[in-house]
TrEMBL record:
Keyword flag Transferase: no
GO terms classed as biological process: cell division; chromosome separation
Keyword terms, alphabetized: Cell cycle, Cell division, Chromosome partition, Cytoplasm
Gene3D superfamilies (alphabetical): Winged helix-like DNA-binding domain superfamily/Winged helix DNA-binding domain
Organism: Microbacterium azadirachtae
Protein origin, superkingdom: Bacteria
Name of the protein in question: Segregation and condensation protein B
């Protein structure tokens, strides 16, 4: 094996690692440790540390490319992508000027079940809706419309409930102002009553 071949092999090994890390870093919403990132991409921690350092240099413009509008920062013992401080005002103005994203039909149905049945677990909501609701619940938590209330001591299941943000979005002061659900539907599995 020549020195040229070894260099080519090193490049092909490093390239997928940095790409894998970038893919993970793009979707995480809280800092992750080197150990966590290494487990996610299936690589040794020293290799991940080196790849992270390489990405930091690249994003900061110390490589061959330009400085990026985002940076890779270590915060609280973990790594995550952040908007550069220089662009905080620009991003805040952009986000503030956007119309709020609409909820999908699945999210609205899940939110209704949680609002009427709270506290309720994910599996209970899934049973009522007869579909997997994991991603929808994550979306609703991420939007601040529902929150984890407590963990059941026997089953370990997390119970969810609505937040004040939901009340504000609905323009009501309490859940008592929600339209009544049919008293004949003990679990809501058949739908909701029509308003009289």
């Amino acid at each position: 094996m020549t020195d040229d071949t070894m260099t080519d092999d090193a490049v092909t090994v490093e390239q997928p690692l940095t790409e894998k890390l970038e893919a993970i870093l793009l979707i995480i919403d809280e800092p992750h440790s080197l150990v966590s990132l290494a487990a996610a991409v299936g690589a040794p921690v020293p290799a991940v540390r080196q790849a992270i350092e390489s990405l930091v240099d690249e994003y900061d413009g110390r490589g061959q490319g330009p400085r990026r509008g985002f940076e890779l920062r270590e915060v609280g013992g973990g790594w995550r992508l952040y908007v550069r401080e220089d662009y905080d005002d620009l991003v805040a103005e952009f986000v503030g000027g956007q119309a709020p994203a609409r909820l999908s039909q699945a999210a609205l149905e899940t939110l209704a079940v949680i609002a009427y049945k709270q506290p309720v677990t994910r599996s209970q909501v899934a049973s009522i809706r007869a579909v997997n609701v994991d991603s929808v619940v994550r979306t609703l938590v991420g939007r601040g419309l529902i929150t984890e209330l407590f963990q059941d001591s026997e089953t370990g299941a997390i119970n969810y409930g609505t937040t004040d943000a939901l009340l504000q979005n609905l323009g009501i002061n309490s859940l008592d102002e929600l339209p009544p659900i049919s008293p004949l539907l003990d679990d809501g599995s058949e739908g909701f009553s029509e308003r009289a």
